[in-house]
Automatic annotation (TrEMBL):
Residues 1-14 have a biased composition (Basic residues). This is VWA domain-containing protein. It comes from Geodermatophilus arenarius. Residues 471-653 form the VWFA domain. Residues 1-21 are annotated as: Disordered. SUPFAM superfamilies: vWA-like (SSF53300).
């Protein structure tokens, strides 16, 4: 990018002001077309975008594949091991210590040995009670004492490891100074979390804490929020791990943990820290029973907590990737969890999906209004063109198309006059007047270079005037009743409506078109509304109301050739009462049929042609549509849904050719 230098012109260097302004735009063509395929198939815009994000594109995994990989990791994590590993190991060490002690006492004839044996016989049956009762016991066997000390060391390391990851390794062969360092860390940590909960500025205090106690946090949190998030998630996982044990196991393990914390002098401090973490992150699933591992190998208390935390993270990540909840967004997906579960490449796949979603909005294909996602007019035009292109491809394949209009004029005889060309005019050019206009425009140009060639500009064009310049007024009535979805014809009807709208507005702009949807009532549909529309779940096929709206539209275009096209899969089952209230009845009641037929005759008296495209061969429908088209001088077509667009567009083009031929 160039920067001016006083007196020395410009200097060029690397652009450092953000994204490269000269970079080619993100290619969204295939993304828009895929969304269009879903929309034209009957989906709404939000559903179509979600479907694209689930599938992925351009060699990138979509949300579905990412979620499948996460679910596989979740399945593996569930088999990590049993959660009672620490309790089982304590029991085994306790049994070993008691056996060694009894071996030492058995040959001793002293009464003191008998008293010790009696004391051992009276130990509580539960492991935690036995460990507590032996705390002050005077061991006769050195091996037994050493084994009991292993129990104490194991509990100290496992209990702290369940609250602070990797503490088990840090406290291996710990000295009194090491234990005191842990106590100091917990005290300072409680004060730090309390200050954070009070809303104080803890940035400096956090730095001092990490300088003093950073060796206990190998994951190296970069802020007090990261530190609290990590500790709170682990504390919540510890609660879920305990909730996943049997009542007997839970009681024994809780007793052992309480004894250990009391021996370390940390009981009250850890209880306070737990409460502070809960206050700092109340949104975590505290105390809830979640998924727990259930494998062959017993897990230590710290490893079991880590396994439960991993299961919770994977379950949350799977839910985020499902996007199946209200207000779901790709921003919800936790990149850190995704990278931990599937690696950096998965984060890159997610970033590509996010970029595509952003670019669809930035480049004007999607609009977000009041949180609702909608297709922009730009995207709707592309969808209409796509639908039309597919229809013409089928017309060409069947040889029924003839959609290239050879004559360039509208209906009517030449008047001998001409007028200025306007966009969409089909009249032939008046070549003489067009060239004359160009000559007159350039003759007096004071900046001419002596070149005498005539250059024709847009404003020079004139077309031959005809007696009649008006075109056709087309009312396309589309059935929106729920039966259209049940029969799988709604997507074809939507695609057909968009194709016809695109054809009329782009190739025959002097024609007018209105799309009218009807179910229990009727409504005029803009292309943007039609693209987002799903079929109506309300019952009723109110063709009468649709024809009323069609007549109003035709009345605004009295000089145009009136054409009414109806796409439906059922005979009328609803009508408007005198007060405008819709009334539904199945099977159709005589009044519904009578009111609909009366409206058909009003359409016929307006001079309109009424053609019906019946999508169901049901005899009642076939009889009805043949009756009304006979009254209005129209025809009945019975295409299958895949050829509906082909029939409707071909019929419109045939109507135009017939009108010009008269």
């Amino acid at each position: 990018m160039a920067r001016p230098r006083p007196g020395r012109g410009y200097r060029y260097g690397r652009w450092r002001g953000g994204p490269d302004p000269l970079a080619p735009p993100y290619d969204l063509g295939s993304a828009v077309d895929e969304i269009g395929d879903s929309v034209l198939g009957g989906s709404g815009v939000r559903e179509a975008l979600r479907e694209l994000l689930r599938r992925g594109m351009d060699g990138r995994r979509g949300l579905d594949e990412l979620r499948r990989s996460v679910r596989e990791r979740l399945r593996q994590a569930r088999t990590a091991g049993r959660m009672d590993g620490t309790l089982q190991e304590v029991r085994e060490l306790l049994d070993r210590a008691l056996a060694a002690e009894r071996r030492e006492l058995f040959p001793d004839p002293d009464d003191l040995a008998r008293l010790k044996e009696a004391e051992l016989d009276a130990l509580p049956q539960d492991t935690a009670g036995a460990v507590r009762a032996l705390k002050e016991y005077d061991w006769a066997s050195a091996e037994a004492r050493q084994t009991y000390d292993q129990i104490q060391d194991l509990l100290r390391r496992e209990v702290l490891d369940s609250s602070f990851a990797n503490m088990k390794q840090a406290l291996q062969n710990a000295t009194e100074q090491d234990v005191q360092a842990v106590k100091d860390m917990v005290a300072d940590l409680s004060q730090l979390v309390d200050a954070h909960n009070r809303g104080e500025d803890t940035e400096e205090r956090f730095r001092e804490f990490m300088e003093k106690h950073g060796q206990f946090f190998p994951d190296d949190p970069q802020s007090v929020d990261e530190l609290i998030d990590s500790l709170a998630r682990r504390a919540a996982a510890q609660e879920r791990m305990m909730a996943g044990l049997s009542p007997e196991q839970r009681a024994e393990l809780a007793d052992l943990m309480a004894q250990t914390m009391s021996d370390l002098g940390l009981a009250s401090e850890m209880a306070h820290l737990q409460d502070a973490l809960r206050q700092a992150r109340p949104d975590l699933p505290w105390g809830q029973r979640g998924q727990v591992p259930d494998g062959e190998q017993g897990l230590g208390l710290g490893d079991a907590t880590s396994a439960v935390a991993e299961l919770a993270d994977l379950e949350a990540l799977s839910n985020q990737l499902s996007q199946g909840y209200a207000g779901a967004s790709l921003a919800d997906v936790d990149e850190e969890l995704l990278e931990q579960a599937l690696g950096r490449e998965a984060v890159d796949d997610l970033a590509a999906l996010r970029q595509m979603e952003r670019e669809l909005e930035r480049q004007g294909y999607l609009n977000r209004s009041d949180g609702k996602l909608e297709l922009s007019p730009k995207a709707v035009r592309r969808l209409g063109a796509t639908a039309l292109r597919r229809v013409f491809a089928k017309l060409d394949a069947t040889g029924r198309g003839e959609h290239d209009v050879a004559d360039a004029g509208a209906a009517g005889e030449l008047t001998g006059s001409s007028r200025e060309w306007q966009f969409g005019d089909e009249q032939p050019l008046d070549v003489v007047r067009t060239v004359r206009n160009a000559v007159l425009r350039t003759a007096g140009d004071p900046h001419g270079d002596g070149d005498r060639r005539v250059r024709i500009a847009v404003e020079d064009f004139e077309v031959v005037e005809t007696e009649r310049r008006t075109g056709a007024a087309v009312a396309l009535l589309v059935d929106l009743s729920y039966s259209m979805a049940l029969r799988g014809t709604w997507g074809a009807a939507k695609s057909t409506a968009m194709a016809l709208h695109s054809l009329v507005t782009t190739r025959f702009p002097q024609d007018a078109i209105q799309i009218i949807g009807f179910s229990s009532t009727a409504q005029v549909l803009k292309p943007e509304t039609l693209a987002e529309l799903s079929v109506d779940t309300l019952q009723g096929t109110n063709l009468q109301h649709g024809l009323i709206l069609a007549r109003r539209f035709l009345a605004r275009h009295r000089d145009a050739e009136p054409v009414v096209l109806v796409v439906t899969d059922g005979e009328p089952t609803a009508h408007l009462e005198e007060d405008g209230t819709p009334y539904f009845c199945w099977p159709p009641m005589p009044e519904t049929i009578a009111r609909t037929v009366a409206e058909v005759e009003r359409v016929a008296r307006s001079g309109a042609t009424l053609n019906v495209f019946a999508l169901d061969p049901e005899p009642g429908l076939v009889h009805f549509v043949h009756d009304i088209t006979a009254r209005a001088g129209g025809r009945v077509f019975t295409p299958d849904s895949e050829r509906l667009g082909e029939y409707v567009v071909a019929d419109y083009l045939r109507t135009r050719r017939g009108r010009r031929a008269r």
